[in-house]
Every structure is written in structure tokens, then in C-alpha cells.
Amino acid sequence: MGLAPALFFGGLRSVPAALLLRGLQLRSLAIREFFGVAAGGVVGIAGALSGWGAWSLVAQTLTDSAVGALLLWMQVDWRPRLRFSRRHFRDLFGFSVRIFGSQVLVQAFRRSDDLLIGGVLGPVPLGLYSVAYRLMTIFNEMFVRSLSKVMFPAVAQLQDDLVRLERAMYKAVGLTSVLAVPAFVGMGIVAPELVVLVFGEEWREAGPIAAMLAVGGLPLPLWTMLMQLLNGTGNAGLALRSHLANAVISIVGFALAVSHGIFAVAAVFAARGFLVLPIAGRFTRRSTGIGLRPMLRASTPSSVAGAVMAVVGLLMRRVLVEVPELALALGAGASGGAAYLGMLAIVIPVLRELWDTFTTVGRGSALLDRAGSAAFDGVGSADPDER
After folding, report:
1. What is the pTM for the complete model shown?
2. 4-38 burial, b for 16+ CB within 10 Å, e for fewer?
3. Distance in angstroms (rounded) separating the CA atoms of residues 372 and 363
4. CA distance 8 to 6
């Protein structure tokens, strides 16, 4: 009940946040995020030190939401008026209802494994699976979703210029993969130690589950970009169908696997991510002419380097088996990371491209205006056969 007002503040800030994102004003959004979180942190810690207990977390959440909403409204000039347009309502409703349907299916997919594990196997396996899933979610938020949010407004702006749209998509896939692939591969290599470090010794059994879920994180950059492409070009109906296929495959797979244990459910989660990509790729090719194959080509360098990283890291785990756990994790992770960077430098000079991208973040759409770099020459071809 105490957290309920956060829903109101969330709705209050949705429109100004959307306006800033549409204008690619990422700096303003980042300022809001920083000061909202900082204010919530100060209030939450002060409450905890004052003995508020769990209510300090409520105070933290409400402060973050309220301060964030206030700052967002201070950063936009638009104000609502008492005007209503049936035509605009029809346009927005037809698109939004499909987005809403997609989100319902996303929640069905994300919660079906929890419901099945809790109902069939009980609370202890559910706790282990939830901790492992939480770790995968943290990596997804950091290395995929945070980088892909800008793609929806960018795709919407470029949807009438196919050549620039293709170049932007292939570059975004390549650059997101450069960060996401080593993150998830590294998570898989050191998952047993990482779970203990983050959540505590009592959750050690969640380590192998987290390693398997990390495999399911590898296709997330491609899947996320395909969904942004469909929604950004106004094909929310096809995105809805993609999410429906994802939900059906996931729920059926989880139902068949749950009696074999939580590791089997995690394996289904990992396999499902690769199975749904061709379905979404077919829809994007039909609607925009941009297929899955060239996107795979854009992510090939990081995928190859990631495979080498996995082999080196796992071999190092076997070599360092007699050393303390922390040293084992550091050694395996560092050697795998070094192998990734070395392989990437051999396959493609993408580090320069990555640096150029970060230096243009403050300029918003400047990234999308550039014609593309030598790192991805030929990938963004506008030739229909090549696409």
C-alpha cells in the first residue's frame, strides 16, 4: 500500500520522458536518473539509520519517483491542455494497444517459469532460480536495454530513409554485441563465484543455473534490436506476433522441462532465445526489407571473439582448480577477457568504433548521421539481394 503512489508518479513522468527520448535528449534523461536515484538513496539510507526498517525502502522508492517526475517536467516545455482529438486518439490507440499486448506477453513469458517452478518444485528451487535470473537481468539491463532504448526514436526518425536505417541498425547491433557478448560470456565463466559474491554463500547452488541463463542472454541484443525495428517503423502488430511466438515456445518448453528440475528450465530459457530470432527476423524482412542474416553478420566478430573467450576462460578454470575461489574467478575472467579483446582486435578494429560512439553520445543523433565505418563496410548494403 505504501508503494502504490509510485505508480502515480510513474505515469506522471511517462510523457515528458517520452518527449525527451523522442528528441534523443539523453543528457536530460541521465540527469533526471542521477538526481532521482541520489535523492532516493539519501532518504532511504537516512530512514534505515533511523530505524524505519522496510519502510526506508518505501521512502527511497517514492522519493526517487517523485523527484524524477518533478525534474522531467522541469526539462520539457510541453504542458497538457484540455483538448481532445478523436483522430489522434484512434492513431495512438491502434498502436498502443499492440504495444500493451506485447508487454502482457512479455510478462507472461517472464513469470511462467517462476509459476511452474514454484507450483511443481516448491519454494526452495524457486528461490535458487530467482537469484540466478536476477543476476542475468542485471547484466541485461546494463549491457542491452540501456543501449537499445535510444533505437526506438532513432528508427522512427529514419524509417523513411532505408539506407540510413540499415546502417544505423547494423551498427547498433554490432556495437551492442561488442559489450553484451563478453558480459554474458564472462558471467557464464565466473557465475558460481559471482553468485556467492553478490548474494551470499547460501545461494551457491544457483551458480550453475546462472551460468546456463547467461547463455540465454547472448541472443538478447539481436532480439531487442529486431523489436525496436518493428515498433519504430510502426509494425507493432508484427512485434506482437513475435512476442506471442516467444511466449508460446517458452511456456510450452518450461512446462515440459519443469519436472526435470530448474537446470532443465534454465536450458529451455537459453534455447528459446535462439529459436525465436528467425521468427522475428522474418517479420522485419517482410515489413522493412531488413533481414536477420546481415544483423548476424554485424555481430559475427563479437560472437567469434566471445567463443574464444569462453574456451580460454573455461580452460583456465581447470588450470586454477587448486587456488582460492576469488583468485580462480579473477584469473578465469581476466584471461577470458584478454582473449576476447585480442581476438576482437584481430577480427575487426571495433574498439575505435566504440570510442567514436561514446564520444558522440552527447550529440544524440550524430551517431545515426554518420555514414558508417570501415569496421562494417558492406554490412549495411542497400542492395535488395544482399539484404
Report:
1. 0.76
2. eebeebeebbeebbebbbeebbbebbeebeeebee
3. 16
4. 5
